[in-house]
Structures are given as C-alpha cells and as structure tokens.
Task: inverse folding
C-alpha cells in the first residue's frame, strides 16, 4: 500500500473514532448501544476492518465496552485514581457517586509473615483483619483488605467495622500522616471476577499500601480495582531525592495470587487516585 493510501486509511479510522466519541459525549448514555459495524461501514464508506479499528481504540480507552453476542455499548465513566489520605466515601461523593460497602470478612487473625514484616511486627502477632467490597452507585469498584495491629487499637472492631478505618484511628489519636503505595496490574482472579462483576478475566489494578503515623506503621492494605473503571492520574513535580520503597516481600505476590485485595489504603480508603512521587497519601480506608 502506498504511503498516500495508508494515510487515507488512517484518516478514515480517525474520522470514525471521532464520530463515535462525539456520539458518546453528546447523545448517548451509559449502557446505550452504539451503531453497528455495518451501519458505520455504509455511513462512512469504509471497510469493516477500519470501523473495527476505531471501535477497538475506544474500547481500549474505556469509552466503549463489548458484550459478547450482544454488541458494543457506552461504558461507565472511569474514576481518576490518585492516592491520597481520603476515604472511599469522600472520593466517591466528590465524583457525584453514592458509595457502598459490603463487609466480606472481619475478625482477628495472626499476621502472615509478609504483613508482619511490613508493619514491623512478629509473624503471628494478632491483627485486626477486614476485607470489604466497595461500590459506587451500586456498581462494584474494588476489593479491599486491611491489617491493623490489635495492640494499637484493641477496641477498633468492637462495634463492627467503622465506616472509615482512618477516621476510627484518628479518634484514637493515631492519625495517618503518610503512606507508600506500590501499583501493579494483572488479570483478575476467579474470585475477583465474581465480586467485581467482570464478565471475563480482565485486568485489575492492584495497590499495596503501608500507612504511617509519623514513623510508626499503622496499617497494611491490599486493593484490587476494576481496570475498566479507573485511570491513574499522576501529578508530576520537579525532581527530588528518590524515596526508596520499603520491602513488601511476599504480600504483593499474595495479592496477585488472588487474595482478596485491598489494604493498601486503609480499608476506608477509597478509590485511589494517582500516587505522588513519594509514597503517597492514600485513600482513607
């Protein structure tokens, strides 16, 4: 194919993509079907491959989503993921969404080696352990798991799981002041697919977080976020001395294995947002 013909084909692909993006922005709502490949082919006088390329690009960007055997639809908007010390509820409401929580596990458990090391404790030390499914406007968004040393707040779960773990710690004079996050991506486990309502194995964004009060570690958490509902926003600043992450060892692997995720931000954390260069202020669990 000559260069001029190649450029013409690319131009047609961009034209179809722009048309669909404008349609989503101005006329369609979440869940609405977009025009079929056949109708777009006839409308723009292009090949089906060109139309598919335009649709694929918007699916990759999270603007559209495919439902096997049904068609292509407008996808729910993505939430910016920026790590800061705010609660999931605060972040959801800031985006105009109503937050929801389902407690999946709660109790006291001995600290696994990786959790103990991250919190400067001995393996087997008693920990408050909370696993929650977080949602926004009724749609599951993330699975979060948090570990907090029992001796820091013995009565933390006496009345059930607090709406905000960060808030409950603050009430006990243990205000989180900073944290450090590690963000990775991998395919969702079977359990995560079920909890997050994923139709098939899709990528999830995983975060592992340690939250501190001054120099004292307060909480270790792991979270799994729907890759199709979050985008990472990272503010950039002038170069500063690099902050070397503390070792997190096996827990990151555990999250990837399928363990309930979350606890990277105290369970009250919320939808994360990007992570500033330094460990980050994370979500308030």
Result:
């Amino acid at each position: 194919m000559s260069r001029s013909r190649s450029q013409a084909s690319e131009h047609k692909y961009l034209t179809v993509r722009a048309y669909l993006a404008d349609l989503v922005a101005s006329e369609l709502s979440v869940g609405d079907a977009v025009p079929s490949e056949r109708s777009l082919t006839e409308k723009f006088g292009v090949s089906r491959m060109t139309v598919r390329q335009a649709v694929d690009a918007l699916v990759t960007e999270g603007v559209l989503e495919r439902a096997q055997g049904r068609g292509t639809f407008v996808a729910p908007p993505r939430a910016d993921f920026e790590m800061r010390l705010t609660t999931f509820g605060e972040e959801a409401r800031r985006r105009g969404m109503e937050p929801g929580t389902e407690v999946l596990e709660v109790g006291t458990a001995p600290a696994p080696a990786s959790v103990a090391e991250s919190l400067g404790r001995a393996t087997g030390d008693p920990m408050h352990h909370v696993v929650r499914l977080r949602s926004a406007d009724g749609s599951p968004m993330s699975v979060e798991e948090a570990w907090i040393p029992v001796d820091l707040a013995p009565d933390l779960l006496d009345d059930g799981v607090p709406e905000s773990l960060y808030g409950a710690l603050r009430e006990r004079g243990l205000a989180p002041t900073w944290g450090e996050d590690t963000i990775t991506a991998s395919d969702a486990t079977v359990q995560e697919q079920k909890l997050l309502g994923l139709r098939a194995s899709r990528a999830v964004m995983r975060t592992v977080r340690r939250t501190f009060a001054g120099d004292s570690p307060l909480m270790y958490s792991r979270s799994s976020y729907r890759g199709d509902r979050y985008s990472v926003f990272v503010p950039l600043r002038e170069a500063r001395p690099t902050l070397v992450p503390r070792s997190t060892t096996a827990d990151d692997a555990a999250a990837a294995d399928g363990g309930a995720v979350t606890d990277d931000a105290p369970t009250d954390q919320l939808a994360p947002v990007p992570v500033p260069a330094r460990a980050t202020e994370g979500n308030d669990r």
Notes: The radius of gyration is 22 Å.
